[in-house]
Amino acid sequence: MIPGKLNSSKWIYTVFWVLVTVIFLYDTRYLITKAGLPFFLICAAVRIALLIGLAWINLNILIPRYLFRKRYILYFVWVLLLIAGYLVIQSVYDYYLYGFIIGPNRGGLLSASLLYNFTHTSLYLLLTVALKFSIDWYEQKKLLQEIKMAQLQTEVNFLRSQVNPHFLFNALNNLYALTIKKSDQAPDMVLKLSELMEYMLYESNADEVPLEKEINYLHNYLELEKIRQGNGADIRLTVNGNTEDCRIPPFLILPIVENAFKHGISKIVHHAYLHITIEITEVLTVKVLNNKLNVQQAEESGGIGLANLKKRLDLLYPAAHTLDIMNGAIQHEVILKIDRLC
């Protein structure tokens, strides 16, 4: 049993027995006037101590040894024997208390005491069993949830790790193309790539980063693409709203933009455009609109970028995001909305 579960269970059982004690004291308060305070306290102490001992034996010995091992007959036999032993002790004490301490009216008290103790003991025993199974069910559910969240986080980290090599592969291809052409833009691209790598290696290791840094990263990426494209494409990045209080998982917007370049404006020679709008209100809204070469490209796959994005969104923001992808005849638009970011 883990320490957290042990502590929580101990407190729950403590509260349960305190309530049982209070109920019993209230139910037998008449003994204070009839038998006196000492006998009243002794009666309560004896009954509660016996009930606690009965419950402890059942929960810690009988249930693990017999019930959990599906030895049901032996379990119920031992429970009956346990209750019988309790009845003998408690009923003899009650017979003495009610018969000799309170008064001489002893006729029929033993049988009445047996029936009373049997019903109440069985009830308390069932309550403790129900309480144990409730605690075990809750702890098991909590543990499964923690395991599930750990697995989801592991998968998110794995999916995120795929983004970095994917981007680096594209960036190096861009740089290679410029060096082949002996372009004067190559040094500027190396500087931009260095800034991007610094962000990737040192600033994006957290689960979330400031949205402002992610937008700056995206801006540098677009500058690199402008250098590589060289086709006069109309590339715009517009940010509306306050980004100061917003945080976002790193590289969450990039796959949409990469997909727009890969299947959109990189294949258009003239009048290519890519318009990115980021709006911060109650939700974060990202719109990426670009034109395409022809209708057939509407059915092309977005590669691992968009596939990873969809998985990450499902893992990070279940029921708290929408991702709409609209493939038209001449343009492609993606709208991403995420709640609980700002």
From TrEMBL:
Pfam families in the cross-refs? His_kinase
- Domain of life per record: Bacteria
* Segments forming domain Signal transduction histidine kinase internal region: 155-231
Spell out where the chain crosses the membrane: 12-32, 38-61, 73-93, 113-135
Any one Gene Ontology molecular-function term assigned to this protein's record? kinase activity
**Which keywords annotate this record?**
Kinase, Membrane, Transferase, Transmembrane, Transmembrane helix
Name of protein: Histidine kinase
Q: Specify the species.
A: Chitinophaga defluvii
Taxonomy, top ranks, is:
Bacteria, Pseudomonadati, Bacteroidota, Chitinophagia, Chitinophagales
